[in-house]
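Quick one - inputs below.
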Amino acid sequence: MTTANYYRAEPQEALVMRPLADIVLLYHRPSGRTHMVVSPVPEILDALQRDGGGTAISIHARLARDFDLGPPDEALAEIAAHLAELADLGLAYLK
Amino acid sequence: MTHAISLRIGPATFRVGSAWPGPLRDLARLYADYPAPLDAIADYTVRLELAGWARRWVRPSIFITGDHGLADAAPMSLAHGLLAAEMGMNLQMALGWRRHLLLHASSVEKDGRVLVMTGESGSGKSTLAAQLGERGWRLMGDEFALLDLHSGDIFAFPRLISLKNRAIDVIAGDVPASRLGPMLRGTAKGDIRHLVPRADAVARMDEGAPPALLLFPRFGHAVDVRPVAQGETFMRLTQASTNYVALGEPGFAALTRFVTHVPACAIDFPSGDEAIALVEQLWAEAL
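Output:
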């Protein structure tokens, strides 16, 4: 896991995102699987989809415009870990 | 099959065949007031077959089969033939039904709105539904609630109510014998006696209605009420559904709508009377 890994997003039509009161539901059309996620995963996915892809560094830069992410090193490591998990789940692809 | 009967329960039709007449005689008596199937083609076939050729005479045993079956299901005593037929119909619904999102839940209706109750076996959902069904509510089902994929309404599957152990004493004394099946002692779930739903539940079994409240009942604890968050509700309902995965995106959309529109509470109760008071109070608050 590195902050320089480049991930490609799933196309927008592949994912149905439905926020509930306390979590966000993701329905992944190609696999038919439902995922339950909480912040910051929906925000990371959204940023990834807006740009078509990105690295932990570029996603961090985009999210930092709208959110207070705290110490950059910790936030970068967390984003990199979430991107790797999303790739494991088939919701993003390591390029 | 030597003996056969056709039944309609809610939107589903069954043809139940048996190597013996006994289980079907019970079915014919208990389902006598249900409407006849709309056509000759049943949605599902259930067969009660001999478990080994000698079993017709020596400790006669049957196993359940049909359109959908479980490979490792243990044979049952012929004396529990009615239970085997009911289990066979449940099995076909659980494994084969695709027209609704099927929730393992009981449901009752009042004033055009539905109360849905889900929980594991022994939670009290079935007994509670049976009791409410005798006290001014329309019983829609004690086992499966059918969530319509388009309208979001709940539809009924009012098969015979399966009273177990202490619930038999609680309810059987208040209903006429004509609405009760034979006492089935020593089944895998203890003593079981089937109850025919009230006439209005059968006459109105094709009427759906929108859900207004979801409860997770738990029998045998001090009275307690706890709101259940939408995320937990969604997760528990996916676990309570036998066809959520098979339905794909329409199932996801229907369940998401249910969870975002229907308030959910977990309720604990030590007795039926306290449970009913709690349900009536929560129902009044929800509407």
